[in-house]
Amino acid sequence: MMRTVFVAATAFAGAALAIRTHREYGGHPAQEIVTRSPCPLLNALANHGYLPHDGRDIEKDTILDALEDAVNLDRPLTDFFFQAGLGTVPVANATRLSLHHLSQHNAIEHDASLSRPDAFFSSHQNVFDPTVFAETRSYWPDPVIDVRQAAAARLGRVQTANRTNPAFELNKSGSPASTAETSIYLLAFGDVGAGTVRREFVEYFFENERLPFELGWEKSKFALTQEHLESMIARVVAETESLVNGSAMMGTTPESQRPLAGNEL
């Protein structure tokens, strides 16, 4: 199950491209048609030039290189992501994907996103929503986000979606993807051992869909592996269960929401 979890959170991408720099992409033709995904990380990689700027026809080798170069995700983990992403391509035996393919609902894209509206309300899951993200960031009161605050933000979004979306669902793909979404930003931008991350890094990343280089962030000095991911997911899950069992959620009451199934937490 843990393997499925991260499938959705980092989303997969790649495409042959020449420039691997953290500078903003520039000079693309005016007629270029750009596509993006529900995954802020993949979008950031395309915006920076680690992936093709247009987000189209992405090959496996490109994503392996891009995620290794940009955030130091190890290649076996990235390969796993890419293979899962191919499942959203509406072509048999596909070997490439475009970022918009990942918007397929309940495959990798899921309800209760940290930065996107539920599919019931909008078809624009590939576009950042400041209102949705405002709720997410409201659970981060301190300059440093810890695992408990990260879990609270995710749980808050799940509770809001469950209360307001009549079609709300976190299925066997969406639930692990949701947990991985939170685990990824803790790993990619924070202190893996401490389970903490500077709030400004995370806010900058979501709001701009760029890596926070200009705020002083640097990629991990060691490769981030499946083991790191599973460990962080376990910590997020444990804090979520603690919040639920302790009735520690803010702003929601049992009367205001439908019961949540266990796999949705």
TrEMBL record:
Signal peptide: 1-18
Keyword list, A-Z: Heme, Iron, Metal-binding, Oxidoreductase, Peroxidase, Signal
Cofactor(s) in the UniProt record: heme b
Entries under InterPro entries matching the protein: Chloroperoxidase, Chloroperoxidase-like_sf
Span of domain Heme haloperoxidase family profile: 23-238
Entry's family note: Belongs to the chloroperoxidase family.
The protein's name in its UniProt record: Cloroperoxidase
UniProt source species: Apiospora phragmitis
Organism taxonomic ancestry: Eukaryota, Fungi, Dikarya, Ascomycota, Pezizomycotina
